[in-house]
Amino acid sequence: MSEELEGAHNKAESAQNAMTMLEMISGYWVTQILRATAELSLVDHVTAGASTAEEIAAREGTDPATTYRLLRAGASIGLFGDAGDRRFRVTPLGGLLRKGAPGSLREMAIVQGSPLHWQSWGVLPDAVRKGGTQMQAALGLAEGETQFDYFGRNPEEGAYFAAAMSNATGVVIDDVTRMLDLEGVSLAIDVGGSTGALVQSLMKTRPGLTGMVLDLPHVMDSAVRAAEEAGVLDRFSAVPGDFFKEVPAADLYLLKMVLHDWDDEQCVQILRNCRASAKPGTRGVVIEAVVGRIGEPSFGALLDMNMLAGTTGQERDFDAYDALYAASGWRRTSTLQTSTPWSVQEIVAV
Ligand SMILES: C[S@@+](CC[C@H](N)C(=O)[O-])C[C@H]1O[C@@H](n2cnc3c(N)ncnc32)[C@H](O)[C@@H]1O
Q1: 167 Cα to the center of ligand 1, angstroms
Q2: Could you tell me if 69 and 189 lie in one domain?
Q3: Are residues 191 and 298 located together in one domain of the fold?
Q4: Which of 29, 76, 142, 282 is the most exposed place for a label (fewest CB within 10 A)?
Q5: Would you say residue 147 lies in a domain?
Q6: CA 103 to CA 86: how far, in whole Å?
Q7: The last residue of a domain, from among 54, 77, 98
């Protein structure tokens, strides 16, 4: 390569790097654009036929001029298309913010930009300095309180969080349903199962399967409502409880995005309580975004920062999970990678 060409190449590369860096730095703008679009139901309004900012603003009770600017920003990141005459249409990507649509991530968008996540992320440097989450200080919680105490006191955000968890289940459920062997399972317990999206989806594909959710008392009503909506209420029970104290017996223990909320000692306690009610040979399923090799693009490594910001937990690699299982009477027997960042680890009670 001639010196001149090399110089031009380097210049183009640094301009590209600067642009990439600028986009990363302003990533939070996108988070809040998505949150506002979801919270103000813009996609729902456009889907229902309101396609100008004025029409949408009239339905939602927002200001037409700022609604237009938000729609325009949304269009620039692919949520809306230009339908001419200052009209907007929803793209397939934007459709993922529609309330209740199959595969919808609307509540996830709201939750990620809402106070618990937003304010906890705002003190991330402090969390790294001090060696653990500073979310209590950021949210005015007492020392030792968790995000679940916060949700208990902020029921609207808590309900969005529960719905966001169902959104996340929607992302993996097809793979999980296809991969899981439910042979010999009559009762599956969704430990920390929130509204029960996972176990209820399995129940829908298995008419003989009985399902149970163990979660905190404030989640119970929505779990029962979700079971009713899923048409499985007659085979479903919602058990209010504390997985640090006791976990009811079942033939299959489901733990999806539960262990990542807690430190190692707490995880071992949860797993031991599952083991205490399980017979030897009973199976469990752990679904988490396992951290990959350093340097590889890893959703798990990024999600780990979310856990550092807002919880005492973390994302782990397989060795770390195996250590938790060994300390609690379980053994990992197989691992299945879904088409998403989430892995399905099958474990057995030893
Ligand atoms: C990150 S969410 C995961 C929910 C669900 N497994 C999913 O993936 O959609 C963690 C869940 O654990 C529940 N939880 C927190 N502390 C608990 C406790 N001590 N006992 C039972 N459930 C608890 C929360 O209410 C919440 O629903």
Answers
A1: 15
A2: no
A3: yes
A4: 142
A5: no
A6: 29
A7: 98
- Evaluate whether 198 touches 264 at the Cβ level (below 8 Å): no
Q: How far is the CA of 135 from the centre of ligand 1 (A)?
A: 18
How many CB atoms within 10 Å of residue 135? Answer: 25
Closest ligand 1 atom, CA of 244?
A: 19
Q: For residue 342, which of 219, 260, 251, 227 has the smallest C-alpha distance?
A: 260
Instruction: Give, using CA atoms, the residue closest to atom 14 of ligand 1.
Output: 192
Q: Give the distance between the most distant pair of CA atoms in the chain.
A: 75
Q: Does 300 map to a domain?
A: yes
Is residue 260 part of the annotated active site? The answer reads: yes
Q: Ligand 1 pocket, 216 CB below 6 A?
A: yes
CB of residue 259 inside a 6 A radius of ligand 1:
no
Please work out whether the CB of residue 148 comes within 6 Å of at least one atom of ligand 1: yes
Closest CA to 53 of 63, 43, 38: 63
DSSP string, 156-214: HHHHHHHHHHHHHHHHHHHHHHHH---TT-SEEEEET-TT-HHHHHHHHH-TT-EEEEE
Task: Give me the residue label for tokens 């907007």.
Answer: 88
The CATH number that applies at residue 87 is 1.10.10.10
Ligand 1 closest atom vs CA 151: 25
Q: For the chain, how many structural domains are there in total?
A: 2
Do residues 184 and 309 share a domain? yes
Mean pLDDT, each 10-residue run in order, the chain (350 residues):
84 93 97 98 97 98 98 98 97 97 96 97 98 96 94 94 91 91 95 96 94 95 95 98 98 98 98 98 97 89 96 96 98 94 96
- For residue 31, what are the domain limits? 3-98
Mutate to test the pocket of ligand 1, among 112, 148, 263, 303 (most ligand atoms within 8 A of CB): 148
Q: Which of 50, 37, 166 minimizes the C-alpha distance to 94?
A: 37
